[in-house]
Design goal:
CATH superfamily of chain B: P-loop containing nucleotide triphosphate hydrolases
Radius of gyration of chain B: 18 Å
Number of helices of chain A: 14
CATH architecture of chain B: 3-Layer(aba) Sandwich
Largest sheet of chain A: 2 strands, antiparallel
Order of helices and strands of chain B: EEEHEEHEHHHEHEHEEHH
CATH class of chain B: Alpha Beta
Strand order of the largest sheet of chain A: 1-2
Number of helices of chain B: 9
Strand order of the largest sheet of chain B: 6-7-8-3-9-10
CATH topology of chain B: Rossmann fold
Number of strands of chain A: 2
Number of domains of chain A: 1
Radius of gyration of chain A: 19 Å
Oligomer: heterodimer
Number of strands of chain B: 10
Strand content of chain B: 25-35%
Strand content of chain A: under 5%
Distance between the termini of chain B: 32 Å
Number of domains of chain B: 1
């Protein structure tokens, strides 16, 4: 069905919405590895997204480095940055970690806004090249659609692998309690660093995709707080901590937000952002496990249900 | 007596002006069952915290299998073979009973299949096999306490330290956990427990250590301890004066 979509809906707008949906689903899956599994509530994913987008674009525009290599470089740089910032933050829990992540992302944004080498506030334009998978540039939306879908599938595979391996169990133990994790022999500093670096790498890869899709980037398009918020919202709405939750969240939220942005956003009132805020509040209060949690309570998913003695 | 598995020498822990542990010394031989008793505030939990890496003693040494462990982080101490439970029971609420125990068995079995096999074995010992699919949050307190012991056991410890695993249980639940601890001991695990339930202490212990106001006031067999006038006055109360 997903494979047939581009041939059923030929207009650019439905495809654009689907590409953004895949992109944010990928970012949500990446967030979920640290936020959903390990309980590290990051509101700074835009920093990793932006580092990925900027690294590949900078290497491409200045040195002609192939964007696929740039993707790996951006992922590695984001992961290193994540480890460097994650290590001193490894003892921060809950809200304090969230605050630190916002501060970090804002520092990155401000810095990039003033960094002449990478175009400062004017940003970077990626010159047109021959079209094709080798150059990561296409003249229609259909190939982008499939590349975005492939990125999402890779992110899901990584997330699945993490959640079923020792690492995933350890992440969930750390989320429950640091003390408990330690008495089970878990080095929570090491595993928190794993969570943040894996998440950063995947987010950065999504950043490279975005840059190659739009072919232009500036700090305002990849590094701003609303992107970080939207990523959290995608994961939480769908169901933080579950494999497919972020995909469900993106499938609901991104089309909704694109439509509201077109209908309401032109007035520059930020109504879409107000809706996000209200949604985050409602989810946290009434359905902390998101749509996925709702489905599993109804017995429609395979997530373990609340079973116990009668 | 064989060589000491755990040797605590002159451990002192102060919190500001309060001395929670004052020059406490004792040793535990391999295979022994030792109980630490004493009134609330005697420093039992602090002593546990010092041994298991949650607190760093101000003075003294803690040697485990001949090596100094005072001040090491808790996760390293666990990897050396000392597991513990908490006074306030802690399990992973969002995980099933089986997954909780696997989180413990992954320590020495990085592969999922082996971790699963070990976890199922431990669940059998702990008598939780029929509840392996329940979520942690769905368990009764007694089952949570047993699960916590099972998680600790799954890390394959040489020394298991339990902090009030029997508080607030019914008689039936108490019997179950006593038989569980006997089974654990049969597997060659050395046990050190902090406990108020004297019935269990009397039945299980080879040796009892009595703390009061941070100091060790007595150490001896269960019988010696409950007949000691000082212990009766400080902790057990007059009802024990038979």
């Amino acid at each position: 069905m997903l494979a047939a979509f581009p041939f059923l809906f030929r207009g650019p707008f439905p495809l654009h919405v689907m590409i953004l949906t895949f992109l944010f689903a990928t970012l949500g899956v990446a967030w979920n590895i640290m936020g959903g599994y390990a309980g590290m509530f990051s509101f700074g994913q835009a920093a990793f997204f932006g580092i990925g987008a900027y690294t590949s674009s900078f290497l491409l525009t200045r040195y002609g480095v192939n964007p696929w290599l740039g993707l790996l470089a951006g992922g590695a740089l984001a992961a290193l940055t994540a480890a460097a910032i994650g290590y001193p933050c490894s003892h921060l829990r809950g809200h304090y970690f969230a605050i630190a992540s916002i501060a970090f992302a804002e520092i990155v944004r401000t810095h990039f806004n003033n960094w002449k080498l990478i175009g400062a506030a004017e940003g970077l334009s990626i010159p047109l090249d021959t079209q094709g998978i080798a150059t990561f540039q296409f003249d229609s939306k259909t190939p982008y659609y499939f590349v975005a879908l492939a990125f999402l599938l890779v992110a899901l595979a990584v997330s699945w692998w993490v959640s079923t391996s020792r690492m995933g169990y350890y992440f969930r133990a750390i989320k429950e309690s640091h003390d408990l994790a330690m008495v089970l022999g878990i080095s929570f500093v090491r595993y928190r660093l794993w969570a943040i670096t894996i998440s950063a790498f995947l987010s950065a890869a999504a950043g490279t995709f975005y840059a190659q899709y739009v072919l232009y980037l500036d700090p305002e398009s990849v590094l701003i707080l609303p992107i970080s918020v939207q990523v959290v919202l995608v994961a939480m709405l769908g169901g933080a901590g579950s494999l497919f939750g972020p995909v469900i969240g993106a499938a609901i939220l991104i089309p909704l937000s694109e439509i509201t942005r077109i209908k309401l956003g032109e007035k520059g009132t930020g109504v879409d952002l107000m809706l996000y805020g209200a949604l985050i509040t409602l989810i946290s209060v009434y359905q902390p496990k998101g749509v996925w949690g709702l489905l599993s309570n109804l017995g429609l998913s395979r997530a373990p249900r609340q079973v116990g003695p009668p | 007596m064989t060589a000491a598995l755990l040797e605590v020498r002159g451990v002192t822990k102060k919190f500001g002006g309060l001395t929670a542990n004052d020059d406490v010394s004792f040793s535990v031989a391999e295979g022994e069952f030792v109980s630490i008793i004493g009134p609330n505030g005697a420093g039992k939990s602090t002593l546990f915290a010092c041994i298991t890496g949650f607190q760093k003693p101000n003075a003294g040494s803690i040697r485990y299998r001949g090596g100094e462990i005072a001040g090491l982080p808790a996760d390293r101490i666990c990897r050396l073979g000392i597991a513990r439970t908490f006074q306030i029971v802690q399990v992973i609420g969002e995980m099933t009973v089986l997954e909780n125990v696997m989180t413990g068995s992954f320590l020495h079995a990085p592969r999922r299949r082996e971790a699963l096999r070990r976890a199922e074995e431990v669940l059998g010992i702990a008598g939780l096999a029929d509840k392996s699919g329940f979520l942690g949050t769905a368990l009764t307190i007694a089952d949570k306490k047993r699960l916590e012991v099972a998680m600790a056991l799954a890390t394959d410890p040489k020394l298991l330290m339990l902090d009030e695993s029997m508080a607030g249980l019914t008689q039936v639940e108490l019997k179950e956990i006593i038989s569980l601890l006997r089974a654990v001991r049969k597997r060659g695990v050395t046990l050190v427990i902090v406990e108020h339930v004297m019935e269990a202490v009397m039945q299980l212990s080879d040796r009892v250590i009595v703390l009061n106001s941070g100091r060790k006031i007595l150490e001896g067999s269960p019988r010696e301890v409950v007949t000691n006038p000082q212990v009766i006055q400080a902790y057990l109360g007059e009802r024990y004066r038979a």
